[in-house]
Amino acid sequence: MTTLIIGGSGFLGTELTRQAIAAGHSTVATCTTAPGGPSQAQWHPLDLRQPGQLAQVLADVRPTLVVNVASSKASWTVTAQGPIRIAMAAAQHAFRLVHVSSDAIFSGVDRVHYDESCLPDPTSPYGAMKAAAETGVLTVNPQAVIARTSLIIGRGQSVHERAVHEMATGTREGALFTDDVRCPVFVEDLAAALLELAAGEAAGIRHLAGADAVSRHELGTLIARRDGLDASRLRTGLRAQSTLPGALDVRLDSRATQQQLRTKLRGVREFCSVPVSASPVGRPAGQRTYSEGDE
Predict the structure, then answer these.
(1) Which residues neighbour 206 within 8 Å (Cβ) at sequence distance 6 or greater?
(2) Where are the domains of the chain?
(3) Model-level pTM?
(4) CATH superfamily for domain 2-278
(5) β-strands 96-102, 145-149 pairing
């Protein structure tokens, strides 16, 4: 199987590339500037704002599977139009497509619990882009998988973890919201679940989030304690009093998808209970690009 990871130099993309290689896939990954992940992969530059580049990469690679984790809060072309172009190519050339989406498509206004049957009602420009991508991908390629996820946490490399480290050590000002609730997922669990879905015959929308709903502040506290930092230095705040767009409380219900998977999507209280120093290390952080879970 030839697997193409679009957005392979981002946080999730790096882990996906690593796991695809470990599973024996012939693995190709794309980057916007320079390769930032495992050297065993073949790397191709790709800017989704240039449709000709996408066509050239697909022609060169001839993938069996494409997993798209590329995204940009600042670009409609990358976040909304790019996935639709990939889905059109998948329908034309008969490769399997897994497109990673986000809980940002939901508002949290009329409800907080969202299963796979819930329709998007975004309140932020980024959420609107992700919702447009979902609609377009499934319209042109109903056999594609749309995998919605939440905040992605790793072994210290994610944007959330780095922010907590900086706040706890006094090198960054700011506060962690107590009214902003999500269902964080461990990057290794998410990557394994995406590859498992890709290997099956599932189509349509799937939810891949962790089992625990926590506020940003509780998440920060769990990370700080895991990493031996002083959690009492993490200031609290309210997102409702800020100018940031987006929902407050959005909890992806992943139980239906979890029942179909061997991979366990652990809750943050479980995967943050093991110190990083006691876990396998050496995951390359990679050349940073925006990918799912980085909000």
Answers:
(1) 116, 145, 146, 147, 148, 197, 257
(2) 2-278
(3) 0.93
(4) NAD(P)-binding Rossmann-like Domain (3.40.50.720)
(5) parallel
